[in-house]
């Protein structure tokens, strides 16, 4: 296999498998191996967990959480049985931390976006924002559907960046654009998390 190969991973609940590039699958496997490593020694759990979970990117935490749900676990704290995406790979050092490469983060966001796009429609997002932040939506003054053209656009962090760039292009100040983007993205993140918990049976 090469780094550009694709593999099927049981990474999302209610799906038979998700196709991702080998680099992304390998990174996810490393995360799960490190997750299991944290649970392997109860006396050292707090220290190990503190060196692991807080240091992850948002997309890494989300995908680990969804992997747990895909395996039938409702919350963090259960050890996972995992298989290496590369047959015969030496996994003895897989619990060691590794920073997520940019192309793997993009792949994670694509996978997460596909999942989140199945949880909410653009109309539901518009209704959420209009009901909770009517003034902000009125001031934005753009067709919000243009911000959700692809599945990865549903990822809250992507929403934050897209909204901020859109408002800056409309001559909003950097501070106002960032505040509005954080407000809208934060509300979407909260609602998606609620729906994720419902889907996963939490």
- Please give the radius of gyration in angstroms: 19 Å
Low-confidence stretches: none
Nearest-integer average pLDDT: 84
What order do the SSEs take from the amino end to the carboxyl end, as H and E? EEHHHHHHHH
Number of DSSP E strands = 2
Instruction: Give the neighbour order of strands across the main sheet.
Output: 1-2
Query: Helical proportion?
Result: 55-70%
Largest sheet: 2 strands, antiparallel
Anisotropy-based shape: elongated
Q: Which band does the percent of strand residues land in?
A: under 5%
Explain what you see:
The model has no long low-confidence stretch (mean pLDDT 84). This protein has two domains: 6-99, no CATH class; 119-200. It is elongated. It has 202 residues and is mainly alpha-helical. The protein has eight helices and two strands, in the order E-E-H-H-H-H-H-H-H-H. The protein has a two-stranded antiparallel sheet with strand order 1-2. A hairpin with an 8-residue loop joins strand 1 (6-9) and strand 2 (18-21).
Summed up:
The protein is mainly α. It is built from eight helices and two strands; from the N terminus they run ββαααααααα.
């Amino acid at each position: 296999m090469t780094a550009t190969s694709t593999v099927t991973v049981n990474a999302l609940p209610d799906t038979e498998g998700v196709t991702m590039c080998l680099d992304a699958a390998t990174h996810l496997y490393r995360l799960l191996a490190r997750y299991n490593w944290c649970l392997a020694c109860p006396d050292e759990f707090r220290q190990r967990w503190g060196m692991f979970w807080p240091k992850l990117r948002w997309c890494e935490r989300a995908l680990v959480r969804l992997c747990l749900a895909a395996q039938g676990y409702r919350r963090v704290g259960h050890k996972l049985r995992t298989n290496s995406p590369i047959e015969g790979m030496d996994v003895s050092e897989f619990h060691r931390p590794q920073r997520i490469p940019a192309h793997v983060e993009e792949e994670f966001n694509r996978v997460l976006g596909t999942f989140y796009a199945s949880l909410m429609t653009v109309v539901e997002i518009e209704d959420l924002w209009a009901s909770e932040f009517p003034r902000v939506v009125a001031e934005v003054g753009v067709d919000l559907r243009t911000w959700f053209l692809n599945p990865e656009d549903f990822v809250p962090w992507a929403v934050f960046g897209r909204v901020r760039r859109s408002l800056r292009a409309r001559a909003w100040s950097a501070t106002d654009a960032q505040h509005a983007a954080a407000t809208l993205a934060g509300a979407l993140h909260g609602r998606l998390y609620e729906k994720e918990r419902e889907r996963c049976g939490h």
